Amino acid sequence: MEKFLGYKCSVCGQEYKPAEVTYVCPKDGGVLDVILDSDAIQKITGPGDIQASQDYSIWRYLPLLPVLDPGHRGTPLRSVGATPIYTLPELAESLNLPHFWIKDESPNPTGSFKDRASAVLVARAQEIGANMIVTASTGNAGAALAGMAAAAGACAVIFAPKTAPPAKVAQLLIFGARVYLVDGTYDDAVELSRQASDAFGWYCRNTGYNPFTAEGKKTAALEIWEQVIAATKLEKRLCVFVSVGDGNIISGIHKGFKDLLALGWIDQVPRIFGVQAEGSAAIANAFKAGTEEIRSVSAHTLADSISVNLPSDGLRAVRAARETNGAYVTVSDESILTAISTLGRYGVFAEPAGAAAFAGMRKALESGLINSVDPVLVLNTGSGLKDVSAARRAAGEAPVIEPTLAALKRVLEV
Predict the structure, then answer these.
(1) Distance CA 198, CA 182 (A)
(2) DSSP 236-269
(3) Rounded CA separation 228/85 (Å)
(4) Quick check: helix, strand or coil at residue 51?
(5) Distance between CA atoms of 284 and 223, rounded to whole angstroms?
(6) Phi/psi class of residue 35: alpha, beta or left (left: φ > 0; alpha: ψ in -120 to 50)?
(7) Angstrom distance (rounded) from CA 112 to CA 303
């Protein structure tokens, strides 16, 4: 595959050929960036070819991905991506944002953004002959891997903290994955999954460890380019708000825009804003301190998808905001619950991590990091059905009444 040249370490800059390394830099453990040959890609495709494609999934961008066509047509593996963009005019008006979009990832096959990474990972696993794929997850990444592996006839092994939401654990089991609940933190599950990968030769999907995860996640940036930047011919620089846990989603989106810039398909990379929960803000802390050194925190937030003590892709996540003139915003759990309720009133049912991005955007607007003339896009990373308990906290309880009109009238009068 001529377009896939190899990898480059995000720490030391050392480059490797595709067969020389699998996960991280052997010298310093740095996360690897996939290197693509822009000239080779330009010879086989252009913006018009992409926009004319009848494949409404991430695979329409196959010329920009470092994998071969995975096949498995007619399965959920082929229906990842092409998620909708909403303008929500009434919400935009209430925010005084004339140019406003929400990209909703909940229609993905397993209900979250993580399907993008897992689909590309499964394609890569096929190419290298790996039938056992392992990952650590608080739920979404594991469900995505389990679902994509099932669609491709591969086996998935998932380590999740025992505190993971029951609905997410149920998804893992339904898809036939081997699931092990770890009596510890997400970070403990990550370490165990790596040890198991080394011991048993399983292919490891972990974010901020396997370089192909960011390649899957960058497809959201490619869709934002096609659905918003190219479609609306934006004159001002787009501001993109992304919730951040491990840091791999924001890194992947940054990578996607950088690939488009290298191809000459965009003139500038959008400003990228990371949003973290106040109780899990290791990357935001580093950004605000002006450093790339990520220090561990004791994470505690209701947004389990972004609850991480020591983010594995923190360095690239800091750079995603710093190099694009973006920023990091931290939000309280209370503001996340409010955001879930607010989005719900306009028809978008967001999980806590997705709602965090909206809460962060509102805080950035109020603090002057962005203003009303800026075009703004918020990424909702997953369905609210992923964490019904959080949705119940946000919405409150419905009243119970007797089955009589008189009882209804009494409630209506309150």
Answers:
(1) 18
(2) SPPEEEEE-SSSHHHHHHHHHHHHHHHHTS-SSP
(3) 8
(4) helix
(5) 26
(6) beta
(7) 14
Structure tokens at 52: 């004319």
Q: How far apart are CA 103 and CA 101, in angstroms?
A: 6
> Token pair of 45, please?
């495709």
SS3 200: helix
Q: What is the pLDDT along the chain (414 residues), one digit of tens a residue?
A: 689 999 999 999 999 999 999 999 999 999 999 999 999 999 999 999 999 999 999 999 999 999 999 999 999 999 999 999 999 999 999 999 999 999 999 999 999 999 999 999 999 999 999 999 999 988 789 999 999 999 999 999 999 999 888 888 888 999 999 999 999 988 899 999 999 999 999 999 999 899 999 999 999 999 999 999 999 998 899 999 999 999 999 999 999 999 999 999 999 999 999 999 999 999 999 999 999 999 999 999 999 889 999 999 999 999 999 999 999 999 999 999 999 999 999 999 999 999 999 999 999 999 999 999 999 999 999 999 888 889 889 999 899 999 999 999 999 987
- What letter would DSSP give residue 383? B
Tell me the three state secondary structure of residue 186. Answer: helix
Residues 6+ apart with CB under 8 A from 350: 106, 339, 340, 343, 344, 358, 380, 382, 383, 384
Q: How far apart are CA 361 and CA 227, in angstroms?
A: 20
**What is the 8-class DSSP label of residue 164?**
S
Strand partners, 276: 330
In CATH terms, is domain 77-111+214-395 a member of 3.40.50.1100?
yes
Give 292-307 as a DSSP string.
Answer: SPPPP-----S-GGG-
What Rg do the C-alpha atoms of the chain give, in angstroms?
A: 21
- Give the closest residue to 246 by CA, choosing from 299, 194, 312: 312
Q: Burial, 167: exposed, middle or buried (Cβ in 10 Å; 0-12, 13-18, 19+)?
A: middle
Instruction: For residues 143 and 158, give the distance between their C-alpha atoms in angstroms, rounded to a whole number.
Output: 9
Tokens standing for residue 74: 């007619």
Q: What angle do CA 9, 65, 63 make, to 5 degrees?
A: 135
H-type helices in 290-351, by residue range? Answer: 314-322, 333-344
